Amino acid sequence: MLHNKFVLVVSVSILCNEHVLLIKENKPTANNKWNFPSGRIEYNEDILEAAHREVKEETGLEIKLTGTTGVYQFMSSTNNQVFLFHFIAEVTGGALSLEEDEIVDAKWFKVNKLSELKEEELREAGVFNQMVQNLLSENIHSIELFDKYI
User: Structure pTM?
Assistant: First the structure.
């Protein structure tokens, strides 16, 4: 019997010259699906540190967080209630090198072309498209909302 649970996730849109980096995942729940670099927040981990860690693990890139489009709540395909914290970032260092076991591809997409991706190509397409709409409308907020004292 599956036990439904709450899952806390960070997701990061890495922007560069009107492009955003997407990764293609190779996970049982997201085989060959495009997504922003993302992953679960570990127990007692700061949200902002989790965003840096996940990007580094999945892409090899070092980033500076520059904003957030907000927090998204949805039921995952595995029936977990997910709270996803989505950030905007820019590259500050490192080199693109993919986490071999879980990431099969990475590609820079024009931000204004993301809405053309087919739903079946995306992990959790509904929430992905909400984040894209916030990117396109520049609905971006300060990361000061995510202070360590929250």
Answer: 0.91
